[in-house]
């Protein structure tokens, strides 16, 4: 299949040939949902802690006698049923939220996302993108010419001028093909890939 090739001025030229297995895969909503949820879960850290009935500050004195009061039996004020008591299953910092995703499934999910981006005309290819100096204004001028605002740039080599010029722009990110993740591909409105990066993506996902 052919991908849209843009110039620095936003003009389309002859398309770029790409693999159908990567950029023309059938849509699979369940697979995309699974790898996105797993990616977010694996980035989550166990940074919360709660106390059980042994850790809360309390007295071991029996609140009232066992019989004759008309109230329910109570042995200790640290009971999880009581206000200020311990939790039955408390959260701990050692809690593990990670989810396992097979490599084959992850690659298939990335291919599905890329294919859907092509169908929605959100994936664009450019010969190369370079700026003469690390100036945000220069990069914004290029984006305006191409009609881009929220964009994920995937380039084969991250140029220092490009990185420095882009890091202060909201809704713009510059990454290499090996760091392309499902969340970023979905989040940005447009994905701009250099021609060489397309070949690298095909090597990584084939």
Automatic annotation (TrEMBL):
Q: Which InterPro entries match?
A: Ribosomal_uL4, Ribosomal_uL4-like
**In Gene Ontology terms, what is one molecular function of this protein?**
structural constituent of ribosome
For the region Disordered, give the residue spans.
44-78
Q: Where is the composition biased (Basic residues)?
A: 56-70
GO annotation, cellular component aspect: ribonucleoprotein complex; ribosome
- Which terms under GO biological process does the entry name? translation
Which UniProt keyword terms apply here? Ribonucleoprotein, Ribosomal protein, RNA-binding, rRNA-binding
Chain's role: Forms part of the polypeptide exit tunnel.
Entry-linked NCBIfam families: rplD_bact (TIGR03953)
Q: Which HAMAP family match?
A: Ribosomal_uL4_B (MF_01328_B)
Give the family per the record: Belongs to the universal ribosomal protein uL4 family.
- Protein's recorded name: Large ribosomal subunit protein uL4
The record lists the organism as Candidatus Vallotiella hemipterorum
